[in-house]
Amino acid sequence: MTDISTKTLSLQEVRELAKSVLVAAGMDDPGSDMIAEIVVKSERDGPRSHGLRMLPVYAQSFTSGYANPAAHPTFERIAPGVLRGDADNGYYQIAAAAARDELIAMARENGIAAFTCANSHHLGALRFDTEPLAEAGLVALAVVNSLSMVVPQGGVRPVFGTNPMSFACPRDGMEPIVWDQASSTVALMDIRMAAAEGHDLPRPAGLAPDGEPSADPNAILETRSLLPFGEHKGAAIAFLIEVMGAALAGGTLSVDNAEREAHGALNVKGGATLIAMDPTRFGNAGFNDYVTRICAEIDGNGTARIPGDGRLKNRAASQDGGVSVSTELLSQLQDLR
Ligand code: NDP
Fold first, then answer.
1. Which CATH number covers residue 99?
2. Given 129, 190, 278, 309, the catalytic residue
3. Residue 197: inside a domain, yes or no?
4. 324 catalytic per annotation
5. Is 307 in the pocket of ligand 1 (CB under 6 A)?
6. Residue 232 belongs to what domain range?
7. Is residue 1 part of a domain?
């Protein structure tokens, strides 16, 4: 592994750096505040691969003309439980934030409600899409499709995006449970990060040019063919996300994400669906006790831990001590402000 020189930044310094890069790339004030906050949350809680390291990609998406830096999303309530959004070719998170209050109200009224969003870009971690709903007392499930990069089990050609999903639910007396995961064995940004840091991945995560599974990040970046997690089971989840993300929302299918080529863009456009459920409307008054019981069975069970709780540990550490950022990345970002 290559030795990396780093500098510690406070979360406020991360926020200011992110904001200045986004504004320099042409993003408007409210949008840049929102995306800067997502960068801060990623650096604070993890995954750091979706924090500051994503800023050059955000900036390029605006300067190339691929994404709209001043998007005005629009919404249509097309069924009692379905709110359909058009992100105006901007970032999904901006549309989702604008839709959140209505989605929460719809879920409380109907028991379950969905927000779908097309004409949108999504570069971040999905956990920040579901967490606010769980903080409002709801159970949430989010999916987004992306750019074809994941091969179906046994396939030789990518069909699915790294298609992440996130789940969140309230937990009595504590922060909500929130997890999110890509459909690939490893997220693309982690492969890029391993290549930049000069080390192999912990296990084979994609195909090398000879068609064999490989842990070498450079070989995988050459084929852009990642393996699904859990073999055919992960490929089936990626399929589900392609349907619930792209097909339900009317977003671009991962295999059709070619528009970006014209802009030389590094990010992707897909479709997203966010489902919110109000547990108080499902008829089990003991919902919270069930969640507590499931968690109790995991706590102290060997080395097992509640999925997603790693973020709470990271959060506490970075709020106290800031985050360490590679000086090479910092100098790249200084050039973009
Ligand atoms: P990881 O495999 O690193 O983690 C998956 C989930 O498992 C996290 O919630 C993590 O939370 C949790 N976890 C990790 N280790 C354990 C453990 N030992 N026990 C219990 N839970 C554990 O994530 P991925 O590499 O799959 O994805 C990385 C990120 O990339 C995600 O945030 C995803 O949303 C994002 N992504 C975004 C895409 C996009 O198009 N926008 C595309 C693909 C990925 P924690 O460690 O905090 O506990």
1. 3.30.1370.60
2. 190
3. no
4. no
5. yes
6. 6-184+228-334
7. no
